[in-house]
TrEMBL record:
InterPro entries: FMN-bd (IPR007329). The keyword Signal applies. Residues 1-18 form the signal peptide. It comes from the Bacteria. Residues 27-100 form the FMN-binding domain. It comes from Fusobacterium mortiferum ATCC 9817. Keywords: Signal. This is FMN-binding protein. Pfam families: FMN_bind. Coiled coil: none annotated. The keyword Magnesium does not apply.
């Protein structure tokens, strides 16, 4: 019984450490809204919820930025050339989510 309780406590503590937060930043055309999943202080996933940017330009930039931000665990990464406003808005949205 004691092992079962300890196991449940461990599962609950892991579950409560994971969080999903939303944030918004201003892109080239309009706001960019993202969902940022974290476990403790670690960024584990980033998803775009709303974006009005030109897809053929924004999507590759956001894919690259997402990989770099997760790898570096920081929004302090270089913007993507040709998608500067989108990059800045995307990073701003992530920073906004992490503040909450």
């Amino acid at each position: 019984m004691k092992k079962l309780l300890l196991g449940l406590v461990a599962i609950l503590s892991i579950t409560t450490m994971a969080a999903t937060k939303e944030g918004t930043g201003l892109g080239y055309k309009d706001d960019i809204t993202v969902s940022v999943e974290t476990e403790g202080d670690k960024i584990t996933a980033i998803k775009v919820i709303k974006m009005a940017e030109t897809k053929r330009i924004a999507e590759p930039a956001i894919e690259k930025l997402t990989a770099e931000i997760i790898a570096k665990q920081s929004v302090e990464v270089d913007s993507v050339a040709g998608a500067t406003y989108t990059s800045e808005g995307f990073k701003e949205a992530i920073a906004d989510a992490l503040k909450k």
